[in-house]
TrEMBL record:
Residues 130-186 form the Mechanosensitive ion channel MscS domain. It is a multi-pass membrane protein. One of its GO terms (cellular component) is plasma membrane. The keyword Transmembrane helix applies. The keyword Transit peptide does not apply. The chain crosses the membrane at residues 12-35, 83-102, 108-127. This is Mechanosensitive ion channel. InterPro entries: LSM_dom_sf, MS_channel_C, MscS_beta-dom_sf, MscS_channel_2nd, MscS_channel_C_sf, YbiO_bact.
Amino acid sequence: MAEFWTSFTTALAPFDVPITIVFYILGAFVFRWILLKLIDRSVKQIVSGVKKKRGVTDTQALSVRSPLAAVRTVQRTRTIGSVLTNIVNVVVVVILVVMIIAKIDPGILASLSILSAAVGAGLGFGAQRIVGDVLNGLFMVMEDQLGVGDVIDMGEATGVVEKVGVRITQIRDVEGTLWFVRNGEIQRVGSFSQGWNRIVFDLAVPYETSRAHVERVMLQAAKELTEDPDWMDYFIGTPEMWGMESISSDAVVLRLTIRVRPGTRWEVERELRARTQDALKSAEINLPSLKAIVLDGADGQPTAGGTA
């Protein structure tokens, strides 16, 4: 038996390097699979736990029925899971390449270190940008600036965050365009998915129309919407009439605001406009021509009686 194993190992000696490389590759795939399974399982356990605790089955329902902290826990967990997955992929590939090179020729690593020192000055700027992208992406996730599923505004790109990578963040805008944004280039992030949103509804009415009457109609329409069982869960607080925002010889602009749950602003705003139109028709209040509307108030800023 000893002679058999000796002859067997002797016969395989010429294939030692290829066989070792194959084992390295298989080991890397197994190691990567185990880590990704652990990450995926941890993320699913946290998300499922939050959903089960809140009595919902999907994240969309969670965003309507659950406290904001629960929604952020789900979104942040998924984002961190995405980032960790990317890090695992990169680290495993780098380690695998280094091990294979070392097995083929240990002297190559020494040569590569010398070569890298020689070209380090030339690649320094590019490396700094890559490191900056990675660090900025990690800090954005750790500081909860954004998460997968968030609706954000980055200036050039506005939409839903689909993926947060080690170096790139992917955003899908309302037209379906997928934007790839380098994390190091992100200077500001406006989030529509944290805390609360405010609907700012401006309505231009004829100069001669009773302003108090129109305000009552607008406020009543908004209150009916907030009391509707199908919509009441979307709101945080009650409607506020901020009053006259601007005035001209043809029309006055009245402003009404409501706080809503994050990410629900647009659908609630559309429903509010539709109900306000029906209420105005019932009250026989006609609106001026679009050419007569002057929206020169301070957009987004409260007037007397409003709260920021």
